[in-house]
Amino acid sequence: MSHEVDVVVVGGGPAGLAAATRLRERGVARVLVIEREAQAGGVPRHCVHPGFGLRDLHRSLSGPRYAGELVRRALVHGVEILTSATVTDVDAAGVSLTSMSGTRRIDARAIVVATGARERPRAARHVAGDRPAGIFTTGQLQQWTYVEKLPVGRRALVVGAEHVSFSALMTLRHAGVATVAMATELAHHQSVGGAGLFARAYARAPLHTSTRVLEIRGRRRVESVVLEHVHSGRTWVETVDTVVFTGDWIPDHELVRRGGVVMDPGTLGPSSDAAGRTSIETLYAAGNLMHPVESADVAARGAREVADAVAAELVHRPGGTQPWVTLRCEGPLQWIWPNRIMEGHTPPLLRVRTKDFTAARTLEAVSVEGRVAVSDTLRRTTPHRSLRAPHGIVTALGHGGIEIVRLV
Predict the structure, then answer these.
(1) How many CB atoms lie within 10 A of CB 396?
(2) What are the backbone dihedrals phi and psi of residue 376, each rounded to the nearest 5 degrees, phi first?
(3) Whole-prediction pTM value?
(4) Which end of the chain is more exposed for a tag (fewer CB within 10 A), N or C?
């Protein structure tokens, strides 16, 4: 069968662009990136604050400059980029897409899916109340502020206290909106140290911990929000006209799920190994599709490693059926990754994430017989932030027979 391209990359964000550029550097002849928006570059295009590119480009750039640099590098290396096109189906032999030109099928020797992750909107969080205007996610807020140049509101409540929540705080200030407060159901914020102080100093916004949104009120526009302290049950009302739901990420997994890829119940992304290999031999995952959510430069660096595996296997794809082991997690662990490993192969790392804050505890690798093969200490954890597992646990995975990783 003839192929239109060697590799098609679905998603033109940092991970997709980095993977495509690396594929060309490795000598792959024809690489096509398909991006559904009118411009490639992904979420950083809408983030004007600095800090992008520290780990991959080794300098601090604003989001738009970072995105522009990734696009420039891809084009210089001969990557083809197709924008304003949506991939509707993916399978082992290629993709189907739709655009203003109609529908089209593109066959490829390998497919890299880098569709990223998205924040859960208000509806997915089951917040009660009215359905007025003035409710955003961080992504929607940034598009309104930096792309569409639309007015946002005057007084806002930020729901969440992850890294991205403080990005929303800065965007609100750029939009001329006062942040009345931040609220998180967890006991502490989940960003870097001093983030709570930053919120108070930068936006004069108190951070309400152990607090959830009980109800949103308003007819045409948000008028107020009812908050509840999760332990005491105390409720109060904040008068705001804007609510921004931040974080609580989920992979954009619909495409690979429809394509028949085995999914991981923890990450909610495709079950994958450290090189992005999924249950479909020619289909690879990259970036925050595998496990949400890492920063743009971390996702880009990981995507380059996926591209290395793709390039190598285009030259010599292993013959026959490879024996794979699917890993599960238990205890307060929310997910582990990689959650799919080739039998007898030691992954380069194992990342874990917990559902709540934990002190230093014991991490165990458990065999299929229920025997603890090895244990080690995992330092304290923060929800919404992944952590590398100790080397002893990683090494045990390569010895075979490990089925469960648990925190006790």
Answers:
(1) 25
(2) -155, 170
(3) 0.94
(4) N
